[in-house]
Design a protein that fits this description.
CATH architecture: 2-Layer Sandwich
Mean pLDDT: 85
Radius of gyration: 29 Å
Strand order of the largest sheet: 2-3-1-4-5-7-6
Low-confidence stretches: 237-253
CATH topology: Alpha-Beta Plaits
Number of strands: 7
Distance between the termini: 106 Å
Structural class: alpha+beta
Strand content: 15-25%
Order of helices and strands: EHEEHHEHHEHEEHH
Largest sheet: 7 strands, mixed
Shape: globular
Helix content: 25-40%
Number of helices: 8
CATH superfamily: Nucleotide cyclase, GGDEF domain
Number of domains: 1
């Protein structure tokens, strides 16, 4: 009896890492709270702002990306070649912020302002369906608590964009010198991205609000817990303290002489004299 030859390792499916792609996730702040009659108009305005900023940055227009563009209703997911990763940081984020500022100056009074969260990530994605953890991680970065705090900082300072970069994107762009000299590391704030309903997700990231120094942004983030510091001990009960007991409203006791019984006297919280 002869056995069939084993499948060679190079023929096993799923062993090869898919090619990398750069991923941008855009979300509008407060879109779900808009009246339905405004949603289509605001969405159209967002598309115009994105197209302007992408083309100005030397990037493909979003809707020219084919399967690399997904309309999410309150934003978009864009998949681009990985060599664009640094360009998605600079000049795109600056151009996007400027386009939002211009939109604010011309929008009708009845139209809400556009305030955006942007996440930039890079990682392997299958082709051509663009499936993989990189998409999930980019969406979670855009939904993380730290970038939501960064949006609050932008709003309070009259700005309209807050961005979060995954650590690989940041390292390949800013420290690597692939951004303009005036865009320095001091403008990016190191943080930990977490999502409330995704306890297993946690990634180092960099926050960036164009036009706002990182020091000003830091004030909007809660102080991280110090794992080395012990949890505060509960306050100790005073000596001879009586444990809390449920109150019994309406109970009435009448004493016709001086109260000396310690069993009873030590358990009276309030005594009303009439």
């Amino acid at each position: 009896m002869t056995s069939s030859p084993s499948t060679p390792d190079h023929a096993l499916p799923g062993l090869d890492v898919p090619p990398e792609r750069a991923v941008v996730v855009i979300d509008m702040k407060g879109y779900s709270r808009l009246p339905e009659v405004q949603m289509a108009v605001v969405r159209s305005d967002l598309d115009s702002v994105l197209e302007t900023a992408f083309v100005q940055s030397g990037l493909p227009a979003p809707r020219s990306l084919g399967d690399g563009y997904k309309d999410t209703g309150d934003g978009a997911i864009l998949v681009l070649p990985p060599e664009h990763a640094a360009r998605l940081v600079d000049p795109l984020l600056g151009n996007l912020s400027a386009a939002l500022q211009r939109y604010e100056g011309v929008r009708m009074a009845s139209a809400p302002p556009l305030r955006l969260r942007a996440a930039v990530h890079v990682g392997p994605l299958s082709v051509p369906d663009h499936r993989g953890a990189a998409i999930n991680d980019a969406c979670r970065l855009a939904d993380s608590a730290v970038v939501r705090h960064a949006v609050d900082a932008a709003v309070d300072n009259g700005l309209f964009l807050a961005a979060v970069l995954s650590e690989p994107v940041y390292q390949r762009s800013v420290p690597a010198g692939r951004t303009r000299p005036e865009l320095t590391e001091r403008q990016f704030l190191a943080a930990e991205a977490r999502v409330a309903d995704k306890p297993d997700f946690g990634q180092s990231c960099r926050l960036f609000v164009p036009g706002l120094p990182a020091g000003a942004l830091r004030r909007y983030l809660p102080e991280p817990a110090d794992p080395a510091s012990p949890a505060p001990a509960p306050p100790s009960a005073p000596e001879h303290a009586v444990p809390d007991r449920p109150s019994r409203a309406g109970a009435t006791f009448t004493f016709h002489s001086e109260l000396r019984d310690s069993v009873v006297a030590d358990h009276i919280d309030t005594l009303r004299m009439r």
